[in-house]
Amino acid sequence: MMKVTLYTDGAARGNPDGPGGYGAILQYVDREGRLHEKELSAGYRKTTNNRMELMGVIAGLEALNRPCRVEVVSDSAYVVKAFTEHWLESWIKKGWKRGRGEPVKNTDLWKRLLKAMEPHETVFRWVKGHDGHPENERCDRLATAAADHGPLLEDTGLEQ
Description:
This protein is of the alpha/beta class. Helix content is about 35%, strand content about 30%. It contains 5 helices and 5 strands; from the N terminus they run E-E-E-H-E-H-H-H-E-H. Strand 2 (about 20-30) and strand 3 (about 35-45) form a beta hairpin. Helix 1 (about 50-60) packs parallel to helix 4. The protein is globular.
């Protein structure tokens, strides 16, 4: 099974009614041992940073054309803690409710993310963002560019 590292980021540009964008970088080694990277990003309007973070992960997972071992590297504690601290499992058991019966936000994207994860062995790892962290910096630029310039999707099919 191919191993893929998925670096993701989202940018709402500080305004839920303004442009937002997400970026993802798929990094993998092919059968001949060559390292490859595929980049994608896209812009959205009238959304929030948390939705952009989720979209980055979803887009990266949906771009994979076969089952892989995927390590998702994200600067979003919201996304990573949902899995590493079993928040998501708890939300599902409670009927997509949080503590005190409050509804979970972004349920549509959480469900889409779970579907995108189905064929893969997926683990999540948090890195600190916005401090030049090398594992996050390129995705941050992708997300910001997407927010500033609109859709920038690239082909993300993995080479054989």
